[in-house]
Amino acid sequence: MPRIDIGEITLNVEERGEGPAFIFIPGLVGLLNAWEFQVAHFSQRFRCISFDHRGTGDSDKPKDSYSTQAIARDVIALMDTLGIERAHVAGTSTGGCVLQNLAIDYPNRLGVCIFSNTWVKADEYINRVQMTRKRIALAYGPEEYVKVSSLFTSGAMQFRYDLDKVMEL
Q: What is residue 1's predicted lDDT score, i.e. its pLDDT?
């Protein structure tokens, strides 16, 4: 997978397919492979782009922030670097919060916006979820954290299908 310099940092990016641009923003874990199933499908009709958030996977760790606003700026810088004027964008969980920032700050750069399993503010529920996820990560390590986090972001449907059979469709 290529690493693309977007100015402030270098992002790990995967690009597949041809056609209109379709950017996939992962949730809190921030890894591009969170969208593997969707990219495999949509890359048949779209230029699909997914990336590791700043500080995750093979993307650079920034000197300053990890805010949803900073990641939204990373998306715009990535679009500029790749020569994309306008893109369809899907964001799940924290990626949906990033997409909210994009929709507010850069509406002319977006086509269709798909918000999945996201929220609009850090209310009591979200605070509890995030604190619990943090405790799991600190107590049990990153592998267990990813397993538990997928329950929040992917839901029960991830366990109901044989992925090989679904991919044949």
A: 64
CA distances from 36 to 14, 30, 43, 116, 162 (A): 10, 13, 10, 15, 15
Query: Measured between alpha carbons, how far is 149 from 129 in angstroms, rounded to an integer?
Result: 10
d(CA 67, CA 5): 19
Distances (CA, A) of 162 to 11, 156, 168: 32, 13, 10
Question: What pTM was estimated for this model as a whole?
Answer: 0.80
SS3 41: helix
How far apart CA 64 and CA 61 sit, in angstroms, is: 9
Confidence class for position 142, pLDDT limits 50, 70, 90: confident
Query: What's the average model confidence in pLDDT over 39-48?
Result: 96
Domains of the chain from N-terminus onward: 3-119 (3.40.50.1820), 121-169 (no CATH)
* CA–CA dist 55, 109 (Å, integer): 24
Element (H, E) at 102: helix 94-105
The residue written with tokens 């597949």 in the block is 16
Tens digits of per-residue pLDDT, 66-87?
A: 889 999 999 999 999 999 999 9
Q: Taking the CB of residue 45, how many other CB atoms lie within 10 A of it?
A: 12
